[in-house]
TrEMBL record:
One of its GO terms (cellular component) is TRAPPIII protein complex. Residues 229-240 have a biased composition (Pro residues). Residues 227-246, 317-340, 1136-1162 are annotated as: Disordered. This is Uncharacterized protein. Transmembrane segments: none annotated. It holds the Pfam family TRAPPC-Trs85.
Amino acid sequence: MSSTLPFSLSPHVVVLASPDLVELLREKKLPQLPDLLRSFTPLESISARTTALAATTHDRYFLRFSDLTEVESACKEDEEARASRTLDWMSSRVSHRAAAWVQEVEERPLNLGKEMKWWEDIRLCTEGDITPNRTEGWNHPVALIVATSTMAANPLQSISNLHSRTIDLPPWVDPTFLKFTLIIHPMTSSPLNMDQSQALLNAVKKQHGAHAHLMCWSLSGSSNTNPFIPRPPQLPPPPNSVTETPGDPQFDNLAKEVEIGSTVLSDDDLQSISRFVREFATQSLIPWMERNVIEWNEAYVATRRLPSRFLSTTRRFFGTSGSSTPAPSSPSSPAPSTDTQQRRLAEFATFLGDLKLATAVFDTLRKETSNTSAADVLPLLLTPSKALETYAHNALIGARFVGRDPSPSSQLRALKYAVRWERGISELNTIGGDQWLVWAAGASEEVPAALLVGQAAQMCARKGTLRRATLCYVAAADRIDKCGIKSLTMHFLRLARDLCNTPVQKLLSPAFFEAEDNTRCGFDGISSGIDHALGRLKYTTGDAGGAVKTFISLLHLTYTKEATKGDDETHIEDFKVALEHLISTSGQEAVSQLALPIRFCQPHKTQIRVGTLDSDEDARIWDQLEQDWKTYWKPNGQCDLRSSGLAQAKEMFWVELSMHNPLDAEVVLSDLTLTIDAPEGIDFTIESLSEVGLRPKETRLLHMGLTCQSPGTITISHITYRFLSLLPVTEPLTWRGARLHATPQQRQGKSYGPDHIVRVQILPRGARLDVELAEADSRPMRLGELRKAIMRLEHPVVGGSIEPLTDIWVMMGEAGWPTLPQCLGQNDTSPSTNDFDLRNTLDPLNPTKLSLEQLTGSSLLGLGKHFDLQLAYCGHEPGLHDISILLVFRKENDETFYTARMRIPFHVEKSLQVVAHARPSVNTKDCAYTLMVEVDNAGAQDVQISRFSTTSIVWGIQDSTFTKWYVACLSLHSDFSVHQTCTFSESPSTSLPLDIAPGQLGRTRATLAPRGKDRIEQAVKTHAFTIRQLHNILEGTSPGPREIPPSVQVSWAHTGSPPKDAALTRHFLLASRRAHVLKQLRTQLPLIPPNRAENLVPLFGAHDLDVILEYNSGDIHGFLFAHGLQVGGLHGGLMDEQDLDDSQGASSTDGKKKKKGRSMYAETEREREMLASQIRGSTWNASEPCISVHVCGPGTEMVMQEGKTSTIPVTFTLRNFSISRTVKCMLDLKQEPDILLSP
């Protein structure tokens, strides 16, 4: 038998020993004869011949020896019952030895290239099976050794009795086997001498054939070697009584067999045994098998001749002779061979090493017979390749290894195939043999099937396919766990975890992973499942500490999509149960070393809030207001502004912590407190939080109050809490600094700046001004609604300064366009309600200084004094907004300014909408426009329009005009709403107000006329300023000293009486106008920085016209503004494409136009082109026809008689709306060829 093939595919020799020989071996404490002979195999350098008479040499030749009585007993047992007992027996052996095996493996460095103990035991149990099988003949005996000793009373009769004994084997066992007679002659104790023994041998040869041998033993005990090897594990016999159950098998330990005395056999005895085994193989067994192979091969070749159907077809086409002579057959050829004989031919050829013949016969059996079991041997005989997996798959199908619950015999047969492939194919791993083992395991949950999957995992690990190895180890652990072998299950899971966390080698530059900030390795999708199963096994086996450590490692950030939603909840629940058990058994000290692998606090989002709990956006608003104050005060000298956002001694401030739950499960944090590092002498008080619940993936802001009793610098270093109210956790409130890349060394590596630390500067206690909202309306506002609130400012007794406050300034944000009505008339130099002078810039309003003399009757605000301040604001746009009010004040004899803050939230609903249109008027002799204004009432209350006004530099409502109102209702369709006129009524009137019901649309018309030459001159100067500024932008002129637009006088015209509070109304219309222009700059010229864009255009352009409607709705009073109208002849100063190109070309070097092509300044050129395009399409470069033409004819049809001439009067009225240009017009009459028209 070749050493390249598995041991189970070697010749099977059965031994039938006489009782006297059995007693002799037992008395001498020697193994029984089959085990004794097995110890001298394999044989080295054994030669055999093929059918072509070519010699084949076997380096190592195996022979299997077994007791005939054991084989006969095994054949009598039911096949399924024996297969079931075999699987249970293997499982029991592994179950009882697994703990020791695992401990031995884990005490040493892991070596996946070495065969594991559990797989070795399964393999030996499988290969040690000697029971013949119906589907294959490997275990069918090829020889029978009849053995006796000269100690018998009549040795010759004993041999005759053995030869005449009936072989009690099933009929399907091949009866073709060699009979050999062995006589053992113990020379010291036998009653026969040497001559008598030799005579006995001769008599046996004459009577039973030449296959006989006399083995002489001296039994002198002079040998110092022990060549005996233990027998392979053998299935215990079936139970014979009710008390003996299969659950109590004989667990034969390989190292604990029959004690073999080293002094019984001498060296000569050992040599005689070895010589016998060799001579038996070379002189009897192999020649006998060679003769059978030659004979069977001739019969096989005879069946491979041309089939009869092919010969009949030939005769049909070519005819036949009158008489046909049959082909002579060989006299040695027997009758046609059967499938069983061909199978034995292939097996004998395999024993002899004639692999070519064996392959051909096995392939024939696979193709032409129903004996599909031949497919399992072909992968062992053919050259390893990927194509062999087809044979393996077919072999498993032939074993009927299909379905969810295959039979025990099918499982055992598949196990044998897998063991043979794993041992007999040296390159099995390279051709995907791990998949073969998985196929062989199937869906079975027995221990051997699980270990098959585990062996497949080990093969994958050797090959480097770590993910597949991980999955196989997990599958094997799952099956082993169902069998109750915890130690081996945990070992497999640990191997799977280690392989899963092994970094995957990728052929990519390390810079790629650094750029992607990808520091993860392995396969995150399955690692949590592995660790979770491992933790549960530790907990069930009593290792609560190890289970807690495993469960806590599962609480990490999830990067992969494979994780299911309920995983974190399960992990936390198991962790909590294990931790409670550990604390109850080992005390609180057992968890002192546990560290939570995740962080709930986000240190980089930590904020210090003083006074009010503002958001980050509010903080930016306060910073901007404080910066505006410093800019305002800069001409007066240096400003020492102490913000109210800074912590002061003896005043509480809040530490805002951002707590984010990275888990997909709800958690509870209890006993939250801060760790403060403060110098000696600074006492502080911390407000702790008893319990905080965080929903899955929730981010929540926590505010913890902190009060310091004296000034200084403190450091907030850590936050401590108890996770799930059990595990104490401390998180640092520091975060990594920015990455450094100033030097080449920093750019090539990873260098970071110092960590950021939360430090708080506690200032000495200064002045204090308490601001509270004394009166306000919190109801939602309508668009444009005017609302007033009352603030109460108090110099408090507690916390205030002893010195009185001398100066108070108020600064307000843009939202709601807030103003102080009590302070509006202080600097008003233009009290007129029709026209007012305007600086015409986009500068924001300066801070308002409160007149304490006017408000309180005293120039100082003493300790404990207070006063009320009225605030007016407007619903400027829909949405939720906050009015930010910053009060800057100082106390007497102090140059330090202090601040106080107030925030008023309000919500605006879009219930009103106003739209205005203007077109040239045809009903006036002079240049005029007809203004159309539409008001849409989408609210639920009536709206009353009480006043209609316009503001512009040149244009205004004519004093003699009257307003026409039209009312239309809304029609709702099924899917959407549109405005449709369902009723239309015209009622000219010169008086207001006008009511608009809910769901109705109101329209008004008025006539616009120019205000005079002086206003036109102002408009021309304003337009020239705008064009000049835009030219400077296009030419790339660097900004020099600021150029202010020329001041103008704005015409404020009304259709009725002027507003009662003109100053308040004018404030809102100017604030609305400024917001509209700033919005235009942001949307139309986004490439220009905002701080420069505000200096480019004026507040009122030369052609701008705004519409103001004053309305009432119940107790609501407000204003509606319509912006964006441009009237008059519009001449875009930069409209000409050539002008724009010239301006861009002038910015180039030497005034040369750059050629198109690649340039290092291509991006700059593209930005210039985009900027020019934005300016070209902006409102300030708009252009419209300035000529209005009205044609008036007779208005009736006239019948012309042929041959007569008729004159028709047609009046053309042309109006030039341009404020700066004279227009020339030409009348061009189009005519047909046969009609002559003349003016």
